[in-house]
Amino acid sequence: MTLHLRPALDALRTMLALLVLALGLMAGAACAKEAVELGEEPWVEARMLHLSEELRCLVCQNETLASSRAELANDLRVEVRSLVKQGKTDVQIKQYLVARYGDFVLYRPEVKPVTWLLWFGPFAVLVCALALGWLYLRERQKNTADHALNAAQRAQADQILHHPGAP
Fold first, then answer.
1. Tens digits of per-residue pLDDT, 66-107?
2. Which of 73, 85, 150, 154 has a CB 3.0–4.6 Å from the CB of 57, allowing a cystine?
3. CA 78 – CA 124 distance, rounded (Å)
4. Are residues 52 and 80 in the same domain?
5. What is the CA radius of gyration of the chain?
6. C-alpha 155, offset from chain centre
7. Residue 72: count of CB within 10 angstroms of its CB
8. pTM score, two decimals?
């Protein structure tokens, strides 16, 4: 390598290192979120946490509100915290959220006619699958027993299998 290219390569390396550093800082800033607001009173925070364990994140769907990091979950936690501060009971808060978002917001919805499919649907599908499987096997067993070959059919099959060119 010639001597006059060395300063240019050093400058290029320095610029590349600065670019990587700048991109790393920008990525960290892009992922940063505001800190979750904590209640001033520990009892409010404890009730909010207890309630959020019983509520479903509407974005994540299979996570509780307490374990979700989605923005909507954060908004719902703020809303629950505000309802707790207003003096609402746990039942009133759940009723308010169910009226607003439906039974789906409850992590363990109540068993009532509207949620029967949710609670008993998987068991009904399992029972139907087992019944259909049993019927299929019974019919198959009956059909295979009826189709046994008689002596003439066996002789014809033997002729075809052992003497393929003969009529």
1. 888 889 888 999 999 999 999 999 999 999 999 998 888 888
2. 73
3. 39
4. yes
5. 35
6. 60
7. 13
8. 0.51
